[in-house]
Each structure stands twice: as C-alpha cells, then as structure tokens.
Amino acid sequence: MTPKNFRNFIAYQLPDGFCDSFEFFEQSLNGRQSTDPTGGSWYTVGFVELPGGEFYLDLQGSAWLFFVQFNERILPGAVRDEHVAKRVAELEERQGYKVNRKLYAQLKDDVTFDLLPKAFIRRSIVPVFIITPNILITCTSSHKKSQEAIDLLGQVFADDNDWRPALMTPQSHPVDVLTRIAQQDPEGARFVATDAAVLKGADKETIRIRDRTIGSEEVQTLLKDEYQVHELGLDFFEDGYSSIDADELTCTLIVNDKLIFKRVQLPAARVADHMGDSDEAADLAGLAWLFATEFKKVTLALFSEMGSAPVGSTAQTDDEDEL
C-alpha cells in the first residue's frame, strides 16, 4: 500500500454522533470477504484483510480504515468474437443456412458463459475511512465504485439506524467557489490555484489549461470574459499561504465541480516520516493515519471556503478526469 492508493477521494457525511456510538461485529466483516467471481458471474465486491490480518484498522480512535476489493473478470471482445465466429461457422456448415440474429445472440451468450471462468481477474482496492466526528471517505474518483463500497459497509451496519451516508455538498455552487479561488489574491489564502484548470464559457466551450499559471494575465482575462472554473489544481495551506514562508504546504490536489478530490499529494518529507518501518502493518497504520488526518482538514477547509457547513445530497455522477 503506497500514497498512490490514497490519491483520489469522495467525501460523505454521516449523522452527528455516529462515530461515538457505532458498533460492528468482526463476523459481519468475515462473512462479506472478497471472493473471486464464479460460474458465469463477472464481478464481485468484498472486504480484504489488511496487513496484520484484520479486516479493519483502528487509527488511534480518530478514524477506521477498511479495504474493499473489486474483482472483475476481463474477457477481451476480440477473444470472445473469435470463438463466436468459430461456432457460427460450424453451425452454418452443419445446418446449411445462415444463423439469424436471435441465434447469434444466444451463441454469444453461450461463449461468454464458457470462457468467463477462465478469464483474467482484475482486482482493485478502494480504501474507505470513517473519520470522527462524522466523515466517510472513499478513496476513488468513481461514484459507482464509491457507492458499491458504501453499500457493502451498509451491510455491516445493517442494524444501525444511523448508517445514512450522504454525499457532501455545499450550499454555494462549487463552480462559483472554484472561480473565486482562481481570481483571488493568494496571500493569506488557504487554497491557492496552481497551473491546471478546466474552464467553460457560456456557450459550453471548454478550455483546458496545463502548465500555465492561473494568475497570469491571459487566464485572468478569460475568467473576466464569462468563463468559469469547473476543475482546478490547488495548493492547500492549512494556516494560509505566505509569500515569505511558502514551505508550509499541507497538500496539493485537484478539485472539480462535482467535488471529487483528485491527485492528492502530500509533501514527500511528511510521508517519509510516517513510513520506512520494516513492519508493513506499522507502515500502513502511519500512512493511513496521516491521510485520514489530511483528508479531514482539506475537506472541512474547502466547505468552509464555500461559506457553509456541508449538507447531505444523494446526487451522484461519475466524472472523467478532465485535466
């Protein structure tokens, strides 16, 4: 497990007091562990053990970490089509007439069912944090995977009526806030625009900016000409940016208008301070505690910038990485 596993996240809000009272049982996690897809199934989701042999990690009572694994069989279309073509040719030769659409579809399903158990399984892990007092973090940029991880956790907390995660959304529109951050004087600000952004005009024209300072005259002119920021690279300074002492960087990240936090990167020196132990479990505990702490800081700070505490939303949309 490396910092790359924690580079993207989506934030949810749990009911007040959830972390003070929630309980789950080890057997609930054991009963929902990850297994390979069997028979004609493509896909499974389940918990996997963390280094140390547990299905969750208690991070000093301030957060809890779970690993949700996604197992997906990958059957290349070219391989499937080759086998379908072979069966079609054999059947047509035997019957003496062309296979119709209905029969072709049936042959395709039969081939898929036969080949699927031998197909390669792609595995991916989504770390999930529950952070005091009431924050849920899924380390993915996919709302689909995020929701599936939440649904799996919901089975563990099935008897807890307070298990109602809601997507964090502010009262202010994210586009307005990102645009304001891109235009503001960085001195003293907690969020400072970097050199990457996605701008959209009134006519939906999209301009992608890479390796150009957002504070440059060229970009600022675009913002004055009715372009708005839909995705923005940011430096986050917990105590505010200072041109005199710019070494107090908390993290860098990209935030989009759907409030997906992407490419989160902490200063290498801080990460190194929490790793380097010869024990894999200890390394993970240190790294997870660090990221849980920083995720909480940056999430609450951004919603504070938006002028209100986060409120729950059920709106969910997958988003491509535009930058």
Name a few traits of the molecule.
323 residues; 5-stranded antiparallel beta sheet; 33% helix; alpha+beta; globular; 8-stranded antiparallel beta sheet
Structure, described:
The protein has 323 residues and is of the alpha+beta class. The chain folds into three domains: 8-72 and 125-165; 77-117; 174-313, no CATH class. The protein is 33% helix and 25% strand. It is built from nine helices and 13 strands. It has helices at 18-21, 26-30, 77-95, 101-115, 143-156, 174-183, 217-224, 268-273, 280-305; strands spanning 10-13, 43-47, 57-59, 63-74, 120-131, 135-138, 166-169, 191-200, 206-210, 228-236, 251-256, 261-265, 311-313. The strands form two sheets. Strands 1, 2, 3, 4, 5, 6, 7 and 13 form an eight-stranded antiparallel sheet that branches. It has a five-stranded antiparallel sheet with strand order 9-8-10-11-12. Helix 3 packs across helix 4. The chain is globular, with a radius of gyration of 24 Å. It starts with 9 loop residues before the first strand and ends in a 10-residue tail after the last strand. Mean pLDDT is 86; it is low at 311-316.
Distance between the termini: 25 Å
What order do the helices and strands follow?
EHHEEEHHEEHEHEEHEEEHHE
Low-confidence stretches: 311-316
Shape: globular
Bin the helical content. 25-40%
Major sheet: size, sense and barrel closure? Answer: 8 strands, antiparallel
Q: What is the radius of gyration computed over CA atoms, rounded to a whole number of angstroms?
A: 24 Å
Number of strand segments:
13
Task: Estimate what percentage of residues fall within beta strands.
Answer: 25-35%
Provide the residue-averaged pLDDT. Answer: 86
Instruction: State the helix count.
Output: 9
Our count of domains comes out at: 3
Q: Which class best fits the helix and strand makeup?
A: alpha+beta
